[in-house]
Write a structure and sequence with these properties.
It contains 18 helices and 9 strands. The chain is α/β, with parallel strands linked by helices. It has a 9-stranded mixed beta sheet, with helices on both faces.
Amino acid sequence: MTVSTAPTSTLTSAFPTPAPADRRGGAATEAPQARRIPRVLAIAGSDPSGGAGIQADLKSIAAHGGYGMAAITALTAQNTRGVRAVHVPPASFLTSQLAAISEDITIDAVKIGMLGDAAVIEAVRGWLEKARPAVVVLDPVMVATSGDRLLQESAEAALRALLPLADLITPNLAELGMLLGEPAASDWAGALQQGKRLAAAAGTTVLVKGGHLAGSAGTDDGGCPDALINTGGVLGREQVVVEGERIATGNSHGTGCSLSSALATVQARTGNWEAALREVKPWLLGALREAGQLQVGGGNGPVHHFHHLHPASGGDGDGGPEAAEGGFAAALDRHAADSLAAIYGLDFIRGLADGTLPEREFTYYLGQDALYLNGYSRVLSRAAALAPTEDEQLFWGRSAQQCLEVESELHRTWLAGRAAATAEPGPVTKAYVDHLHAASLAGSYAVLLAAVLPCFWLYAEVGATLHEAFRRDFATDPGAHPYAAWLRTYADEAFAESTRQAIRFTDAAARRASAGDRMAMAEAFRHSCRYEREFFDAPRLHA
């Protein structure tokens, strides 16, 4: 958003090089069936250690705002070191579970995991054909991360026959090869080709995951990409690649379960597979990065599903690292880093950096920005009214005034004569402003600050990166960049100090807050980070 802000630290590294982001065909707004609280059914095996299977599914669904339900297909005896035994109850009992749930509760999405044997697969197949849930994500659990086989070889044919009933299939590389009757791919290019063959054979969308590839052998930059592939045109193009960093960790138990159930939940809310992946991937990176905090088991430990909440251990106003000076800001920095990684993967940001962004998309962005700033200024005025000190009142009041000044300048310059660009707020703009207004009306000064902070923080960090890339790449001919005047506005040190002050005030509010309020602050910050990311991506969808 265009507010007088700037980064806490100038980013001087080379501008990130994302893979191109393809688009899903059709409307990009929420699907008619999308719900704020999706009701998601996980059909999978149980992991008594809590890191994978049904336990991981329910945690992932809850972490993304869904209501989770579970139908158990198998019982396992396992821990972080491996699987000791598997017991598959009669398929008729699974059928009873599925019938009991679907006869009483509307199901918005289904995630299918471990199925065990052919009879269980047929039971699921029969129920899917009868119930016809709107969203079905199939994670074809065949081999555990530890290497233990979780599906009988005799059931592989039945599983392949189930694939066309899924909207998204999320195999790991070993499972992708097994479904095709081929060896697992050894590099990213080979994995993409296998994904295309499976998508064509099953007539559905396949998520190819780069997590099991060694960085040096798998990708050019040692990153960890994922790709959505559909040869039937559902995505708009054949594939959508979403880049990501590789997290060095010995705790990845349940990663596949967690990813697939999170995607089912977010897809039920957004109706867009690419949007779902771009929201879930940063969360999963954070879950891997913070997994060591859990200290569970002596083997391959679980991911931290609720890392984004960072609950403090103490009571009101004391205890826990986030109650110390700078502690809450440090916790939010982890949220911001994940969101920035996703933002740098957007076509809009790349096009703005190298000057290839179509003018209609830039105009749409500025027009929506002007509409957003009008609402944002009112929210900042509310922060000024709630502020406990004169310094904070003056800061938020000045920030509100600057929003209106920027909006006026936008109309006087670039948007002059382009009234259609600001005719009405788009769906992302409206949702973001509604979220901020809800935070302002809740009455908590601390939660309100956490909600408004990403507009300072993320915008400023992105702006600094864009400006640095502009200075580097257009040093000899800055006038060749069509948006040079816009990018130069990011160089003002006053922007940086505004952001640093906003962070300091938010951190101070967290120190005064209760543990419960700090959890609410983290949640508000996380939602605003998501809207920031969607705001940058909106021009591609709506311009």
